[in-house]
Amino acid sequence: METTELIRIGVYGASILLILIGLYAVLIKKSLIKIIIGLSIIDGGIHLLLIGIGYIKDGTAPIFSSGLEGSASRMVDPVPQALVLTAIVIGFGVTAVALSLIIRLYRHHNTLKIDEIKNLKW
Fold it and tell me: CA-to-CA distance for 68 and 41, rounded, in angstroms?
């Protein structure tokens, strides 16, 4: 097995592991902060998976110039990179909004445990 294939398997395995760890935190943990951390871990795993999909061995940046004829086959796909950059910004915004809602919920109920929050009326 070639080194590139081993690296690709490792990246895919690490991304799936991150997604599973995040799912565990979202489904099992009862604290809202831990659930948000789990969602961020899932987000990171998906980003790693998308970057791994767009990898090409000995690939170059997708910048065309007049002297690089015939090198289009060696260029990496820019779509996963752009998608990951967009997803990072969106994930940051979603996390910020979720944390602000959690702060407001804590001020009202004095707890972050889902089991202890009985009445969610403001």
Answer: 39
Quote the CA–CA distance of 40 and 92 in Å, as a whole number: 9
Dihedral, 92, 80, 24, 122 alpha carbons, nearest 10: 30
The amino acid present at 15, given as its one-letter code, is S
- Cβ proximity of 34 and 25 under 8 Å: yes
Residue type at 62 in one-letter notation: P
Q: What DSSP string describes 93-113?
A: HHHHHHHHHHHHHHHHHS--B
- Cα separation, 78 vs 61, whole angstroms: 8
How many other CB atoms sit within 10 Å of the CB of residue 43? 20
- What domains does the chain contain, in order, with CATH numbers? 1-59+74-116 (1.10.287.3510)
Residues 23-73 pLDDT 10s: 999 999 999 999 999 999 999 999 999 988 887 777 777 777 766 565 667
